[in-house]
Amino acid sequence: MYKLTMMQGVLHQFPWAEVEYEFKCRDENIDLSPVSSAVQAEIDHLCTLRFTSLELDYLRTLRFMKEDFIQFLRLFHLQKDFISLYDNNGKFSIKIKGPWLHTILFEVPVLAIVNEVWFRDIQPAPDFELGREKLYEKINLVKESNKENLGFKFTDFGTRRRFSRKWQDEIIKILKKEVPGNLIGTSNVFFAMHHNLIPIGTMAHEWIMACQALGPRLAYSQKFALEHWAQEYRGDLGIALSDTLGFDAFLSDFDMYFAKLFDGCRHDSGDPYEWGDKLIEHYKKMKVDPRWKRAIFSDGLSFEKAVNLTKYFKDQIQTSFGIGTNLTNDISSSAIQIVIKMTKCQGSPVAKVSDSPGKQMCKDSSYLKYLKRVFEQRASQAK
Fold it and tell me: What residues does the Nicotinate phosphoribosyltransferase N-terminal domain cover (predicted)?
């Protein structure tokens, strides 16, 4: 969902932007090269697909989707010229390069393809019964939390790293049947449509990263990104992503205007308890009652961790959780950590400076040093 919402913003505000993305496997001991040809075949097929009339009509039911964007999607398809697979010193690599508007949708299906092809190769006879047992353990944990009236809410965020499309579909069916009051939606728009769930997603790191090159000044690129998002959605989709340049740097930009304007923030790296405490403190400093705001957690969550976070922040701030790998890929004992991140916009480097080791991604070390220095200064000035 966040790819479509960002894509609409790109169409209206940055249709001329040129970008580059790079694939990265964070597991250094994993060699994906044996499945390269199978991945290429799937991507070739991906580029033949079109949105159907049924899918476009569904998007029209979402009040924040505009007709000109839906008409654009009617003509849209991903193009093979903008994506290439290659060998990088013996490592399987993918590069995406082209207009942002025409490349933004590659990330999620390509990651899902790499995952499914990889697990099809190494685990041709998966133990789905074991997967169902694990799923019902999670469901029982959720049901136990309901006895405490915690108000635990979660969303399926598992498309990018799922074991398979079929398995994700089965998981959603079971969750909807067993814990309908806790499952609030899915980031997968196709499954949202077919299972009558809410499609959930607002912005990703690339929106803020691109604005490092698109905005007038690097030091104010986060404010530029948040302002342009607000202009596009006018109150809808009001969750701000907080860790693209580190949480302290985010808070220095998330002033009273943005604190009141946005419905809440999303956590995606660093210690979640520390993050939530700092967010609550910041809202109070901005004269905003945090109990009316929402904290979304989406960083490597298990159900046990999510329930514990719900308990900790109960009556302090509203919480909900986006659960990915632990939900859709714990059928395998060796889930792989793969990402596709923007590395350039308008020919200039862009970067994500995470609050967690290993999540940082930038090919230009000098730019990364400069970026950190700029935002460390911004954060210290705000204090």
Answer: 1-115
- Taking alpha carbons only, the member of 149, 153, 148 closest to residue 183 is 153
Task: Enumerate residues 6+ apart whose C-beta is below 8 A from 225.
Answer: 203, 207, 208, 210, 211, 215
CA–CA dist 299, 322 (Å, integer):
8
Range of the domain at 317: 128-328
Structural domain count of the chain: 2
Same domain, 38 and 150: no
DSSP 352: B
- Answer whether residue 119 shows pLDDT above 80: yes
State the amino acid at position 234 in one-letter form.
R
Distance, first Cα to last Cα, the chain: 35
Question: Degrees (nearest 5) of the Cα angle 54, 116, 239?
Answer: 60
Q: Is the pLDDT of residue 347 over 90?
A: yes
Residue 25, SS3 per DSSP:
strand
Would you say residue 383 lies in a domain? no
Nearest residue to 362 via CA among 345, 349, 372: 349
Cβ(356)–Cβ(230) under 8 Å?
no
- The overall average pLDDT reported for the chain is 94
Residues 75-116 have pLDDT tens digits of 999 999 999 999 888 789 999 999 999 999 999 999 999 999
- Nearest residue to 374 via CA among 222, 229, 197, 152: 222
Backbone angles phi, psi at 364, to 5 degrees: -110, 100
> Both 172 and 260 in a single domain?
yes
**DSSP codes joined into one string, 87-125:** EETTEEEEEEEEEHHHHTTSHHHHHHHHHHHHHHHH-SS
Q: Are 215 and 310 within one domain?
A: yes
- Cβ 328 vs Cβ 167: under 8 Å: yes
- Per the listing, tokens 């790499």 go with 114
